[in-house]
Specification:
Layout lengths: L6 E6 L2 H6 L5 H11 L5 E7 L6 E6 L20 H7 L8 E5 L1 H12 L8 E6 L7 H10 L8 E7 L2 E6 L2 E6 H6 L6 H5 L10 E4 L12 E5 L2 H13 L2 E5 L2 H29 L2 H12 L7 H5 L26 H10 L8 H4 L7 H16 L11 H5 L2 H10 L15
Parallel strand pairs: 2-4, 4-5, 5-9
Antiparallel strand pairs: 1-10, 1-11, 2-3, 6-7, 7-8, 9-10
Helix pairs in contact: 2-8
The structure holds flavin-adenine dinucleotide and iron/sulfur cluster (4 copies).
Length: 416
């Protein structure tokens, strides 16, 4: 019987899952078992849309349909927790299983702290994550650097530090370092990301450390919670999954690769933050870049930390409506509210039509605040710094009236 802390190789006994799975098919088999045994009411996962640059979220309740969701989409830059809050009532009345990357997992914790998600009803199967590539960037990179028409590519993977494509007529791999030095490759937030093995999920699955005869055929599983152990044991007992202890040499290799990825994250942080400068120089750069903002609210809509009934950026007393460029207060409000909790998921940058590096600006500030106050967002239920100064009155106003606006004016009458 597996228990918390165990390191295993796991592989599916389901022939259909095996065909489509990225590695051993452990993740998809675990979900199949979870649905069949009614451990969860639904599973929220990613599946291929019109092509491999189009990852789409899907809710599955029929276990037979899970096979279509197996496999890794490295151009899948979505974040799932806010969808659980918005469309699945925060899992307050249903048990939901979700495959999570590190950033998804961190966003779940941040939403749970704010009572927007019921973590008791969520099972998280984490996937190790070396990074994802924006779909637009992937197409550009494949055209410019690989000299291949992106429409002819039918498979992509990131393996041993290379971005590899299979296309009509061949396959080709180029080192990620080379691509990134040339301005291509992973999203900039992914380069700075240091959550490579999502250990605060219930299970952490990946390919690092799978060696010997199981290489490419099994999934490396780290058991991170009792919930994860019981899910895994149930799946093994049902016969859909087989496991064995991980090879000790493989374990060592996995540790080394994770260590190297963390160092790479530090390197990119240094590079990106140094380029931003310090003090007034940094402020001027941020003001110049954000002057392009068209106030579409995309960043707020996507940010897992932004959940307020009434967003302060819509208060005309702070941000006068009808003007472009938008008053810088719009961005200052976001920095003040989010910077202590930003999980560097990159969503605010990914969706920005003005291509403003929002995640870089927010992440740079989060790292400064972390240095000052020691608060690390997204890894546990510790309350953020802002919670220490939050007004009780404001909370009760929100509770009683459905609005947390405190300023009355012609656009915004304070609710009685
Ligand atoms: P499968 O049974 O094939 O199931 C895969 C699951 O992942 C499915 O639930 C699917 O919906 C989900 N999924 C697919 N794409 C995404 C996405 N973009 N976001 C969220 N969920 C998704 N492992 C490593 O050890 N090192 C790495 O560097 C690494 N990088 C990764 C980068 C990305 C973007 C992703 C998605 C995964 C990465 N993995 C990495 C994990 C690895 O690719 C496998 O997902 C993992 O080993 C599980 O394999 P499996 O055969 O059990 O999964
Ligand atoms: Fe993966 Fe981190 Fe990028 Fe999320 S932010 S996709 S966990 S590398
Ligand atoms: Fe993610 Fe941007 Fe919000 Fe940070 S500010 S959590 S990067 S959406
Ligand atoms: Fe985000 Fe602040 Fe608006 Fe709330 S008020 S949605 S935290 S910007
Ligand atoms: Fe402005 Fe970009 Fe945010 Fe839209 S997504 S409000 S353009 S910063």
């Amino acid at each position: 019987m597996a228990k918390k802390g165990d390191m295993l190789y796991a592989w599916t006994n389901d022939a259909e899952i095996k065909k489509k799975a990225e590695l051993g098919g452990a993740v998809t088999s675990l979900w199949k078992y979870a649905l069949e045994s009614k451990l969860v009411d639904a599973v929220l996962v990613i599946t291929k849309g019109v092509d491999l640059y189009d990852a789409k979220p899907v809710i599955i309740t029929d276990p037979a349909k899970l096979k279509d969701t197996a496999g890794s989409l490295h151009c899948g830059t979505l974040l799932l927790p806010k969808l659980v809050k918005k469309y699945l009532n925060g899992a307050f009345d249903k048990k939901i299983g979700v495959t999570v990357k590190g950033c998804d997992m961190m966003a779940f914790y941040e939403l749970a702290k704010r009572k927007q998600i019921n973590l008791d009803n969520i099972i998280m199967i984490g996937v190790n994550c070396g990074g994802s590539v924006s779909p637009v960037m992937a197409r550009k990179m494949i055209t410019d650097k690989f000299g291949v028409d992106p429409e002819t590519v039918h498979k992509e993977e990131i393996d041993k530090g290379q971005f590899i494509i299979e296309y009509e007529g061949g396959h080709k791999g180029i080192s990620m370092d080379e691509l990134e030095e040339a301005g291509y490759g992973r999203r900039s937030n992914c380069r700075r990301c240091k959550l490579k093995v999502p250990r605060q999920a219930d299970l952490a699955c990946g390919n690092w450390g799978v060696i010997g005869d199981k290489a490419g055929k099994a999934t490396f599983v780290e058991v991170c919670s009792e919930k994860g152990a019981s899910l895994l044991n149930g799946a093994v007992k049902s016969g859909i999954l087989a496991t064995e202890a991980a090879n000790p040499k493989g374990l060592e290799i996995r540790g080394k690769v994770e260590g190297a990825m963390l160092k790479l994250g530090d390197k990119w942080r240094k590079k990106d933050f140094e380029r931003l400068g310090e003090g007034k120089e940094r402020l001027k750069k941020i003001m110049a870049e954000t002057a392009r903002c068209i106030k579409c609210y995309g960043c707020i809509d996507q940010c897992p930390i932004c959940y307020c009934v009434d967003c302060t950026t819509k208060n005309p007393a702070y941000v006068p409506p009808g003007y472009l460029p938008v008053n810088f207060m719009f961005h200052l409000i976001r920095y003040a509210h989010i910077a202590d909790s930003c999980v560097n998921c990159g969503q605010c940058e990914e969706v920005c039509p003005a291509e403003i590096p929002n995640a870089l600006f927010m992440h740079a500030q989060q790292v400064e605040l972390e240095k000052m106050f020691g608060h690390v967002p997204g890894v546990n239920m510790e309350l953020p710094l802002l919670a220490l100064v939050e007004e009780k009155e404001e909370r009760s106003r929100l509770h009683n009236t459905g609005s947390d606006m405190i300023y009355e004016n012609v656009f915004n009458p304070v609710p009685k």
